[in-house]
Amino acid sequence: MKKIFLFSITNKSKEFPLARVGVIHTPHGDIHTPAFITVGTKATVKSLTPEQIKDYVGAQAVLANTYHLYLQPGDEFVKNHGGFAKMMHWHGPTFTDSGGFQVFSLGQALGHGVSKIATSEEISKSEASKNRREKKEDEKSVHEKLAFIDEDGVTFKSIHDGSEHRFTPEISMQIQHNLGADMFFAFDECTSPLAPKDYQVEAMDRTHRWAKRSLDEHKKLGVSEATGLQQALFGVVQGGAYEDLRRESARTLGAMDFDGYGIGGSFTKEDMGTAVRWVCEELPENKPRHLLGIGEPLDILLAIENGIDTFDCVAPTRIARNGAIYTKDGRINLNNAKYKNDMSPVSDDESWYTHKYTKSYLNHLFKSDEILAYTIASIHNLKFITQLVDDARKSLEKGTYKKFKEEFLEKYYNDRC
Question: How far, in Å, CA of 262 to CA of 266, rounded?
Fold first, then answer.
């Protein structure tokens, strides 16, 4: 079968050896990289229409969530619509994740307030804890309530009705074939950044075994029954915040016949860019690299200079629903009283859709619990991050990335970086 998924590098940075500009060719169009991928968890970007995603945000692709679409409305339902893109009326390239991160959030992270990124201080405290063994037993007890991992897969309970379900690498592949995305990810185990190294090793090795099973099942299934088209499968690199594990995982997966690679799991916040570099130095250069679930501007720019091609994150729309928006001078919250009579535009750029609205109006909408507040703020935040990555790509092409990054960070973080 002729391949219709290809990746080509069109420009390499002279300032940063790993940074590059490229094009991902998919059955539904090209993605010019580096690129930010908009997240549409349940085949919808919350409060936005597909036309707004394309015309106002300028998004090149949309990523949907396997775990959530499996539970509601069900992958067979999505398949009957011709895949999630057709169901939501999106005509561009698409991704789906594997459900591995949701297993993490229902398992090790449950009840501990832990995200994918932790500070080195938090990790050190966790490793030095005298009560680690007892804590591990407590975590296992909580873990088994909603998600239990074994060698074959994961048993978990629905967040909707508590019903029990099962994901294995094979089932994840079957579901993602039904969802019909152009690109999707092998089933992996996402670990907590506070997990001790011995567990990171165990989870990484299991992820490698699951990667092989995912690849075998994907080849067995052939084209997506939902779309009738070939899909691209990405392996997911794990290994926590440990250099030896990250490099080992990248080498192991890099030797497998994947179309591209995702970088998942947990990171040390201070060294996220360094961890990305470890991985990208090991992965095949001629295949795309996607950083899963990372959306902070600083993290995005560090990742780009260390070899990442695409990103996805729910942060832009999540913080938008709470009244926060990105500006060139940093993040602000429009719920604050000082914006009640602020007649300045939400965006300073006249070409942006959100330039026509004032901060005062958005303050009113949020205070009034009007749904339109979510729409305008979400469009603005997605446009901001999308534009940031687009501008980063242009600066790479011009050979001015270092200057672009320094000027952006100095203004956005107000000399805090």
Answer: 13
